[in-house]
Design a protein that fits this description.
- The chain is α+β, with helices and mostly antiparallel strands.
- The strands form 3 sheets. The chain has a 3-stranded mixed sheet with strand order 3-4-5. Strands 1-2 form a two-stranded antiparallel ribbon. Strands 6-7 form a two-stranded antiparallel ribbon.
Length: about 110
Amino acid sequence: MANVANCKKCGALFLQTSKRDICDKCFEAQNKLISEINAFVLTSPLESIMLDDLLKRFDLSRDEFEALFNAGKFVKIGQKVTFVCAKCGKTVPIANKTNFICSNCAKKLQNEI
């Protein structure tokens, strides 16, 4: 059953026919952005691309990127895009992260609890 909802991104009213919380227009724009990011990373001659540089280039927040990453939209680029671990400072691929700390630091924190 469809519900009327406000788009999480633009605020427009839309007919919500799925679990999506954004309107069709924003959904299309999001898919275009995902394609552009994937294409940019996959065709880049660089060995790795820092996440912060990618966020600046595509005017994306960490939260927006994290949501898309967790939804599986960036599986192909997970080893090429890197970030600096907030705990140890090591540069690691985003595929090896838990809340922007590396898997080693995440394991250490888990053991401390």
